[in-house]
Design goal:
Layout lengths: L7 H10 L16 H31 L8 H25 L13 H27 L2 H7 L3 H13 L5 H23 L5 H24 L7 H22 L2 H6 L7 H27 L2 H22 L6 H30 L3 H9 L2
Length: 364
Amino acid sequence: MNRAPLKRSRILHMALMGASDPSGEAEASKEKPFLLRALQITLVVSLYWATSISMVFLNKYLLDSPSLQLDTPIFVTFYQCLVTTLLCKSLSTLAALCPGAMDFPSLRLDLKVARSVLPLSVVFIGMITFNNLCLKYVGVAFYNVGRSLTTVFNVLLSYLLLKQTTSFYALLTCGIIIGGFWLGVDQEGAEGTLSWTGTLFGVLASLCVSLNAIYTKKVLPAVDGSIWRLTFYNNVNACVLFLPLLLLLGELQALRDFSQLGSAHFWGMMTLGGLFGFAIGYVTGLQIKFTSPLTHNVSGTAKACAQTVLAVLYYEETKSFLWWTSNMMVLGGSSAYTWVRGWEMKKIQEEPSPKEDEKSSMGV
């Protein structure tokens, strides 16, 4: 059966609210033995957690390690984009040489498509750069709270762009998130570890994540709906746009003066960071495929909680009760928002449309 095309407003609404197209979710749960499906889900979720947490800790090492003493956050981000670009092209070539062995779309650089993707690439650059800059200036333990306003920006942009109102319960969960964010900022300040620069970058990163969801939905048709093609073009554009930034910010000179520039360990860590950056996109899609978008959000919230606890233990930090309360407010508010949106979407799907009501009343 052909699926009716979605209106632009509906696409933007889905992007902002984290909802998937309900007509495509029915095929997700084909008949499989329960134990097999449970094992698959456990492995996929564990892979997502391991990849995401490892990437955060590795990026913190590259961006703010006393042993490295490398102050080039833009270059670190540029190199990760370069690794992702090369991996995408390599896998595309491998798929062409061994058809049937692996499933990966063919990638050929088309300047017209690259220009079409450019607005999204600018937002993408902002998202990954502000994420890394936030991580550079704040601790891993505070990183989740520092970037916790994505949900709030989703609600705000859905109103500004779509004139879409949000339910009272969803707004209440956003209030909990904002309260947790401010309490976290207050407690970081009380402990003398607050970085206003890092907090600002975290807020900008949250805004860019929301904008990225909007532009991704709008730009996907230009790459035939292929996420991997979009990843390729995004990272190619990012590599080009990062070059003048490296010159303007003097990071190339800082690299020339870097004592470990010829170290195999340094480049190994940099390349591993790029591999994790590539892998997180794959395992995220894999987790959504084996569970659901809403379950993915819940898993991400639980992962953030585990990441915070690990960071406090690893860096041997001592946090106050109110600091932990701020984290629980952010995580609890995010989980509650996910649950409320899932309940609302389910309610909408179960309600019969006006035409169906009319047909049933006519006995058709």
